């Protein structure tokens, strides 16, 4: 019996939910993850350690992100396969009011760090 080969889009479910790790969504070769973040981080920027189903990732968030709060890590998604390039890991930072707000000194420091990282 001949083997049927599915196209990459057909081989992947459109959304996978991982308990305790948030939602992981596959869009083509890209993986999308939503992570909670303090609103000040999305607004002012800074460095964040984000827990993803693929492990902890360190990302720089800047206030110039378009759209706000979305960070794309090139080549960190699904692996390259059948001539298609590796996908990206896209992290959506969702504002979480339960996370503490920083002092004014911290806001100034994160703005400075984000400006020099860009």
Description:
The N and C termini lie far apart (55 Å). 20% of the residues lie in helices and 37% in strands. The radius of gyration is 17 Å and the shape is elongated. The strands form 2 sheets. It has a 5-stranded mixed β-sheet with strand order 1-2-3-7-6. The protein has a two-stranded antiparallel sheet with strand order 4-5. By secondary structure, the protein is an alpha+beta fold. The N terminus is likely disordered. The chain has a single domain, classed as Sandwich (HSP40/DNAj peptide-binding domain).
Features of the shown structure:
single chain; 118 residues; alpha+beta; HSP40/DNAj peptide-binding domain; five-stranded mixed beta sheet; two-stranded antiparallel ribbon; 3 helices; 37% strand; disordered N terminus
What is the total domain count?
1
- Largest sheet, described in full? 5 strands, mixed
CATH-level-4 superfamily name: Urease metallochaperone UreE, N-terminal domain
Radius of gyration of CA atoms, rounded to a whole number = 17 Å
User: In percent, how much strand structure appears in the residues?
Assistant: 35-45%
Task: Give me the side-by-side strand order of the main sheet.
Answer: 1-2-3-7-6
Architecture per CATH nomenclature, i.e. the level-2 architecture: Sandwich
Just give the CATH class.
Mainly Beta
What is the first-to-last residue Cα distance?
55 Å
Mean pLDDT: 75
Number of distinct helices: 3
Low-confidence region ranges: 1-20
Report the strand count.
Answer: 7
The assigned structural class equals: alpha+beta
Q: Could you say which overall geometry the principal axes of the C-alpha atoms support?
A: elongated
- The CATH topology comes to HSP40/DNAj peptide-binding domain
What percent of the residues sit in helical stretches (DSSP H or I)?
Answer: 10-25%
Question: Secondary-structure element sequence?
Answer: HEEEHEEEEH
